[in-house]
Amino acid sequence: MLGDDAFEKEIDIMKYAQIIVEVSASEVDRVFDYACEDALSPGYRVLVPFGKSNKPIEGYVLHTKQDTDFDKSKIKAVIRVLDEIPVISPELLQVAAQVKQDYNLKMVDILRLFIPAQMRGGRIKELKRFFVGVSEEYKKSTLDDLFEKKLIKPSAQNRIDVFCYLQEKGDVPLSVLEKTFSTSAINALVTLGVLHKQMQSVGRVPYANQPLQDKGAVVLLQSQCDAIAKIEGSQKMVTVLHGVTGSGKTEVYLALIEKTLRANKTAIMLVPEIGLTPQALRIFRNKFGESVAILHSGLSAGERFDEWKRLLLGQATVAIGARSAIFAPLQNIGIIIIDEEHDSSYLSENNPRYDTKEIAKLRASHHLCKLVLGSATPSIDTYQKATVGEYDLAEMPHRINNKALPPLQIVDMREEIAKGNHSALSETLLYEIDQTLAQNNKIMLFINRRGYASYLQCGACGYVAKCSDCDVSLVYHRDENVLKCHFCNNRFALLELCPECKSNHFRRGFVGTEKIVENLQEHFAGKTKILRMDNDTVQKKDGHLEILDKFATAEYNILVGTQMIVKGHDFNNVALVGILDADMSLHFNDYKAVERTFQLITQASGRAGRAAIDGKVILQTYTPKHYVYHFASNGDYKNFFAKECNLREITKYPPFSVLVRVLVSGQDEIETHTLLRQVFDKIVDISKQKRGFLYLSCMRSPIKRIQKSFRMQVLCRLEMNSSKELLQDIYHIVNRHNSTKNKIFVEINPSNLS
Question: What are the angstrom distances between the C-alpha of 350 and each of 555, 663, 746?
């Protein structure tokens, strides 16, 4: 035990680390000075004593320095370092500082994005197993040598078999070896020193059983070569790759990454859905082998840790994944690619809230590398930046081999009702499905609503079953015969009697994927097997892959699913795509509703006719005259963009302003409303003092309650030139009013205003 004098003397020869502790609370969202050894540097995780009780807690080293402004006698020392090397690079620490400023996030919440969650608290470690192999001394020995040295007798066949096998195979896991050979023979040779047994790290490989297919050399088309040349030759950091569905954007990505790896640099490739990562991984492993690592939240804890560590140590140089892969611990990044850049999944809607594309720009700027934003339907914001010259633009306006986009036929569902057809499947669509099945081709049917029915309503008094914790109707799931809340995942028994009037007569709301599958099974019984792909059917880790692999076989010809089936999937023999309720995303009270509808229609249509066979798209709607269907049916993105951009400019919505939502939530409705008024009044004061507010209002959120918390919001639109300064003012107000009892979040250009 050191005395006070000795302790002060030791402190004097140490340096100091500024550390963020692993506590997500605003009052401790600041650095604390700790004494540390000279070897410690920024990016390390450490264990430190914290608080009055000196409870050991994990933390992250942000800076080190030779002196401190605090009383050295009161400064505590780092207990120990938790990792062999820094786990957060200097570049990512810079990104964290910028993200904290731009999005008003807690530093610890940002730092948590950079490492696998299970590393915190030591919940995951390297997987180690015993391996057995021939000792170095005997690797070049023959059996005769071992007979002569009397290490193995010629009659000891078990020992001979083990030795010969390991000489051929090298080190083999003990558990594998014991399945084939005698344990006593193995142990005897280890004791004699002929074999060695040692603990080794074992990598947990995601999708290890996925078959690889070497397609050989690919000859790029002129359009692909032109796009690559435009991206590489651009003087701008960001290039928008606008290519129609089926134009060959993936081969462009592969070629760009191949050139990057040849230059001894690394690459990040993002896809919007976890369901797309196995397909992307297969394509990239075919091309780049073990240099590819995958990162997404659907992996097991061990797989995610091992893939992250391979990237950290430089054993893998290409990171593929969904949104979170933008934080891959790569050094010397040469290119970042975001496929389907328009997709709303790139905007995090939960704490910590951030825009993946903005993070990508920060990383690209640090590494002086290219950022490619690819899409058949770029977001209005992205494409507008390309038209004014902020980004460069590379275009691929034609499908491979100049194959035409599939024709889109619009079916007016009002006419179906007039004919007495109240089904979600029009006569036109049923006929086309029948014809497609007769030709043994495949069909994809898209409806962005899961479950059997969107609500359950009493036919006598009008009561609608709602979640007890959320202000939303419950969805009927017939497979499980339960009512589910799609916001908090609460489950309720199916109602037999109305709780209001005791009637047993219920009517069901809009149909979902379950009901569509049931209808198809009735119509096409015995003709084919039908698959369903939605959040209910892909809950297993490999759920997406299993369904897609089944759909690729001859046994299944129809795939029904939500929006996860319309993004990026490439099947050669999909001849028909049905869009069952195109209006579903159109009539939201959201400035992005029309844009989102156009994107979904175009992406869904693009799944048809991608190879030798011709494709067809059937789009069902109750509002066939809406302009979005005219542009979508012609695949006319540019004229759609021009119209939509003009509307945004007139109404001063993004990209011609910055939309800010301040979301206030709490479990007491009166307190939440009071807090909302306080925040709103302070923002009103700012708007009176400074120019730049185009719109300012407060209201209840469209979904008034989620998970027992009441939700209210301030909405404002800010002029582009003034937005940065005004945002900092809004952040300052929010930070002064935040508490553990009530939460306040600020969202910038949110993708969903509900």
Answer: 40, 12, 11
Mean pLDDT over 197-217 rounds to 76
- CATH number of the domain within which 522 lies: 3.40.50.300
**Residue-wise burial string across 620-652, b where 16 or more C-beta atoms lie within 10 A, e elsewhere:** bbeebebebbebbbebebeebbebbbeebeeee
Q: What stretch of H or E contains 339?
A: strand 333-339
In tens, the pLDDT along 148-157 reads 888 999 889 9
CA angle 418, 447, 272 (to 5 degrees): 155
Place of tokens 């939240």: 297
Predicted pLDDT at 379: 96
Residue 58, Cβ neighbours under 10 Å: how many? 20
Worst-scoring range by mean pLDDT, 41-55, 367-381, 585-599? 585-599
Contact yes or no for 223/248 (Cβ under 8 A): yes
Amino acid at 591: Y
Residue in the structure block whose two tokens are 């770029």: 378
Query: For residue 238, which of 374, 394, 391 has the smallest C-alpha distance?
Result: 391
* Cβ(655)–Cβ(395) below 8 Å: no
Query: Containing domain of residue 325, as a range?
Result: 222-402
Q: What percent of the chain stands above pLDDT 70?
A: 97
The candidate with the shortest Cα–Cα distance to 569, out of 312, 139, 250, is 250
Whether residues 398 and 412 fall in one domain:
no
Whether residue 136 is contained in a domain is answered as yes
Burial state string for 147-165 with b = 16 or more CB within 10 A and e = fewer than 16: eeeebbeeebebbbebbee
Number of structural domains in the chain: 5
- Domain shared by 426 and 522, yes or no: yes
Q: If residue 50 lies in a helix (H) or strand (E), which one and from where to where?
A: strand 45-50
585 against 498, higher pLDDT: 498
E strand spans, 556-708: 556-561, 574-579, 616-621, 658-666, 693-706
What sign for the dihedral angle of Cα 228, 232, 235, 238?
positive
Which pLDDT score is estimated for 214? 64
What is the per-residue pLDDT for 218? 80
Under a CB-based contact definition with an 8 Å cutoff, are residues 593 and 753 in contact? no
Residue 119 lies in a domain: no
Cα-Cα-Cα-Cα dihedral sign, residues 383, 385, 388, 389: negative
User: Are residues 71 and 144 located together in one domain of the fold?
Assistant: no
481 in any annotated domain: no
pTM: 0.90
Residue 108 vs residues 61, 665, 749: alpha-carbon distances, Å: 11, 22, 24
Residue 700 belongs to domain with CATH number: 3.30.70.600
Supply the Cα-derived Rg of the chain in whole angstroms.
30
Rounded Cα–Cα distance for residues 696 and 687 (Å): 9
Q: What is the pLDDT of residues 577-628, one digit of tens each?
A: 999 998 888 887 789 999 999 999 999 998 888 777 889 999 999 999 999 9
| Tokens 């892969």 -> residue | 325
